[in-house]
Design a protein that fits this description.
- By secondary structure, this protein is mainly alpha-helical.
- It has one domain: Growth Hormone, Chain: A.
- It is built from 22 helices and no strands.
- Helix 2 packs across helix 7 and helix 12 packs parallel to helix 19.
- It is globular, with a radius of gyration of 25 Å.
- Pfam families: Sugar_tr.
Length: about 550
C-alpha cells in the first residue's frame, strides 16, 4: 500500500470521535429513520384500506384486503428494496458513494409523495398506484442499506466503528416508533373531528369519507425526514477510502479529510499510484479464495435472520388481541382501529425494538460482533422453542401474558443480536472497491429472507384444517409447527455465523487484506508494510 494511503487512512483510524462523526450518524441515520418509517407504516393502514376499498354490504365483519392484494401491498416494497440493494450497491463502487447517495434519497422523497396519490377512484386503480410507487420507494430504500453502512464504516475510527455503524442502523427503531406516534396523532385528531359509530352499529357510517385522507397523509409524511437531510448529503465529501483506494487520488483524499477532521494530513505524491490496476476482480478465483466464505457467511446469516425477524407479523394480531390492545374489528370504527393498531405497534417498538438496537450500539465495540451475533441467534432459538413446544399451554387466556413476554424477548435478542450485526459486518470485511457491492449482495439476501418470512410463513402458519384458515388461504402446517421451523432457522443462523470473521478493533484494510495486495507501480516498496497485521485476518 502506498505511503499516501497509509497517512490518510491511519489518520482516519486513530481520529478522536468528534462532531463530524456525529453529523455523519445523523445524516446516514435519518435515511434509515425514513427507510423504517416507509417500510413499516404500511402495516398501520392495511386494515383501513380494506375497510375503505373492500367493504361488502351486509357482511358481519369490516372489509379486508384479499390475500393476493394484501401480499402485493406489503411485499412490493420488499421486492423493490432487494433490487435497489443490488443495483445501488454495485453503483456505489463504480461511481462513488457520495454521487449515488443523493440519488437514493431523491427516489425516496418522490415515491413517498407518489404513494399517497391515486390515478383513479376504483380499488384496483388506487391499489395499483400504491404498489407502483411503493416498489420504487423500496428501490430507493434498498440503495440506502449498502451506501449508509459503507460511508459510515469508511469515515469511522477503529475504536468506535462498530457502534457508529450500529447507531445508523438503530435509527430504524426510531423510524418504526415515529411512524406509530404520527399515526396515533393523526388518527386521534381525525377521531376528535369526525366521530363515527362502531361497525356493528352502522357498517357504512363507521368509515367516514375523511378516513381516505389518513392513510395518504401517513405514507406521504415519510418524504419529510429524507428531504431535510438531502442538503447535508450533497455537502459531504467523498469518503477518503474510496478516493484513495478506488479512485486512486490520495492527494484529494488527504485534502478532503484535512478539512473534515481539522487536522493537517500530508500527501507526498500526486496520484502516483493511479497507474496500478486492482490485483483481482469481484468473483475472481482470488476473491473467492480470500472472501468467498466471508460473503457466504454474511449473506446466509442475514437471509436466515430475516426469515425469523419478519415472521413476527404472524403473531402480532393474536398477541394484540390477547392482551386487549386491539378488540374485535366489528366493535370499532375505522379511525379507532388505526389508532389502536398504531398504539400497539408503538408500545412494542418502545419496549422491545428500540432497546435491543441500542444495547448493540453500547456493547458492539466491547464484546465484538461475533459474540453478539452468536448470543442473539442462541436466545432467539431458545425463545422460539419455548413458544413452540408448549404452544397449547400459551393459547389459554391466563397464560397469554407469558407468551407476550417471551415473544418480546425473542425480538429484543434479534435487535441486540444478528439484526444489527448482519448490517455492520459486511461494511467492514471486504476490500474498498467491492465493499458496497458485497454489502448490497448480503442485504439483498436478507430481503429475500424477509419475503420468505413475511409471506411464506403467512401461508405456512395457516391451520391444518381448511375450514379454520383465514379467508382465501389454503391449509398450512399450523402456528406450532411454524415456530419449530423458525427455531431450526435460527440454529442454522448460529452455525453460519462461524463463517464470518471478527473485525473488532482492526482497520478496514487489515480486515479486507488490502495491505497485502501488491502495488504494481512500486514493486516490493511497501508490500510487506503491514503483513504481520494481516495474518490476524481469519481467511478461510
Amino acid at each position: 500500500m502506498a505511503r499516501e494511503h497509509i497517512h490518510v487512512l491511519n489518520a482516519l483510524d486513530v481520529a478522536k470521535t468528534q462532531w463530524y462523526h456525529s453529523l455523519q450518524i445523523i445524516i446516514a441515520g435519518m435515511g434509515f429513520f425514513t427507510d423504517a418509517y416507509d417500510l413499516f407504516c404500511i402495516s398501520l393502514v392495511t386494515k383501513l384500506l380494506g375497510r375503505i376499498y373492500y367493504h361488502v354490504d351486509g357482511a358481519g365483519k369490516p372489509g379486508t384486503l384479499p390475500p393476493n392484494v394484501s401480499a402485493a401491498v406489503n411485499g412490493v416494497a420488499f421486492c423493490g428494496t432487494l433490487s435497489g440493494q443490488l443495483f445501488f450497491g454495485w453503483l456505489g463502487d463504480k461511481m462513488g458513494r457520495k454521487k449515488v447517495y443523493g440519488m437514493t434519497l431523491m427516489i425516496m422523497v418522490i415515491c413517498s409523495i407518489g404513494s399517497g396519490l391515486s390515478f383513479g377512484h376504483s380499488p384496483n386503480s388506487v391499489l395499483a398506484t400504491l404498489c407502483f410507487f411503493r416498489f420504487w420507494l423500496g428501490f430507493g430504500i434498498g440503495g440506502d442499506y449498502p451506501l449508509s453502512a459503507t460511508i459510515m464504516s469508511e469515515y469511522s475510527n477503529k475504536k468506535t466503528r462498530g457502534s457508529f455503524i450500529a447507531a445508523v442502523f438503530a435509527m430504524q427503531g426510531f423510524g418504526i416508533l415515529g411512524g406509530g406516534i404520527f399515526a396515533i396523532i393523526i388518527s386521534a385528531a381525525f377521531k376528535a373531528r369526525f366521530d363515527a359509530p362502531a361497525y356493528e352499529v352502522d357498517p357504512v357510517g363507521s368509515t367516514v369519507p375523511q378516513a381516505d385522507y389518513i392513510w395518504r397523509i401517513i405514507v406521504m409524511v415519510g418524504a419529510l425526514p429524507a428531504a431535510l437531510t438531502y442538503y447535508w448529503r450533497m455537502k459531504m465529501p467523498e469518503t477518503a477510502r474510496y478516493t484513495a483506494l478506488v479512485a486512486k487520488n490520495a492527494q484529494q483524499a488527504a485534502a478532503d479529510m484535512s478539512k473534515v477532521l481539522q487536522v493537517e494530513i500530508q500527501s507526498e505524491t500526486n496520484k502516483e499510484e493511479a497507474q496500478g490496476k486492482p490485483s483481482f476482480g469481484l468473483f475472481s478465483k482470488e476473491f473467492l479464495r480470500r472472501h468467498g466464505l466471508h460473503l457466504l457467511g454474511t449473506a446466509s446469516t442475514w437471509f436466515l435472520l430475516d426469515i425469523a425477524f419478519y415472521s413476527q407479523n404472524l403473531f402480532q394480531k393474536d398477541i394484540f388481541s390477547a392482551i386487549g390492545w386491539i378488540p374485535p374489528a366489528k366493535t370499532m370504527n375505522a379511525l379507532d382501529e388505526v389508532y389502536r393498531i398504531a398504539r400497539a405497534q408503538t408500545l412494542i417498538a418502545l419496549c422491545s425494538t428500540v432497546p435491543g438496537y441500542w444495547f448493540t450500539v453500547a456493547l458492539i465495540d466491547r464484546i465484538g460482533r461475533f459474540a453478539i451475533q452468536l448470543m442473539g441467534f442462541f436466545f432467539m432459538t431458545v425463545f422460539m422453542f419455548a413458544l413452540a413446544i408448549p404452544y397449547d399451554h400459551w393459547t389459554h387466556k391466563d397464560n397469554r401474558i407469558g407468551f407476550v413476554v417471551i415473544y418480546s424477548l425473542t425480538f429484543f435478542f434479534a435487535n441486540f443480536g444478528p439484526n444489527a450485526t448482519t448490517f455492520v459486518v459486511p461494511a467492514e470485511i471486504f476490500p474498498a472497491r467491492f465493499r458496497s457491492t458485497c454489502h448490497g449482495i448480503s442485504s439483498a439476501s436478507g430481503k429475500l429472507g424477509a419475503i420468505v418470512g413475511a409471506f411464506g410463513f403467512l401461508y405456512l402458519a395457516q391451520n391444518k384444517d381448511k375450514s379454520k384458515t383465514d379467508a382465501g388461504y389454503p391449509a398450512g402446517i399450523g402456528v406450532k409447527n411454524s415456530l419449530i421451523v423458525l427455531g431450526v432457522v435460527n440454529i442454522l443462523g448460529f452455525c453460519f455465523t462461524f463463517l464470518v470473521p471478527e473485525p473488532n478493533g482492526k482497520s478496514l484494510e487489515e480486515m479486507s487484506g488490502e495491505n497485502e495486495e501488491e502495488e504494481p507501480t512500486k514493486e516490493g516498496s511497501y508490500n510487506n508494510n503491514n503483513n504481520n497485521n494481516n495474518r490476524t485476518v481469519p481467511y478461510v
